[in-house]
Specification:
single chain, about 150 residues, mainly alpha, three-stranded antiparallel sheet, 8 helices, 3 strands
């Protein structure tokens, strides 16, 4: 009996805590931003015309990301390109959540890393510390594939 329990503990211990990558986080953010929109949010315009596309990216967010990645040279592409919008998010996060972003790139991010990224996406560079972004994170978390 003790050997079976020990083996079970070893097997369970090898699994470790769950880790995440961008492929889990980005769809959850997109669902919160435009999940009910036709075409997965492509063509979506929100926030009185200030936010574009499936991730509802603002021009100032895009400009900031473009300082990190010079190939991000056309804000209007956020409106109809999921891939372009995802590149914008990743460039922005490399500036404001460098460690969490790196772990997401490696598929080794924790749930806390996902929270940091989601809250910054919603609330700007200091979004992870704003109480106003907590509800947004709860929505994103509810859409994560566990």
């Amino acid at each position: 009996m003790k050997i079976t329990t020990l083996l079970l503990a070893l097997v369970l211990g090898l699994q470790g805590p769950q880790t995440y990558s961008w492929k889990e986080l980005l769809p959850a953010i997109r669902m919160v931003e435009t999940g009910g929109s036709p075409n997965g949010g492509l063509g979506a315009i929100g926030d009185r015309g200030n936010a574009l596309g499936p991730y509802q990216i603002w021009n100032i967010y895009h400009k900031d990301a473009a300082t990190r990645d010079r190939s991000l040279n056309n804000y209007r592409r956020c409106l109809n390109s999921k891939d372009y919008s995802e590149r914008v998010i990743k460039a922005y996060m490399k500036r404001y959540a460098q460690a969490a972003s790196k772990r997401l790139d490696q598929g080794q991010a924790s749930l806390k890393d996902l929270e940091t990224i989601a809250r910054i996406h919603n609330g700007g560079p200091r979004g992870a510390t704003k109480t106003s972004t907590q509800k947004y994170w709860a929505k994103v978390r509810s859409h994560l594939k566990q």
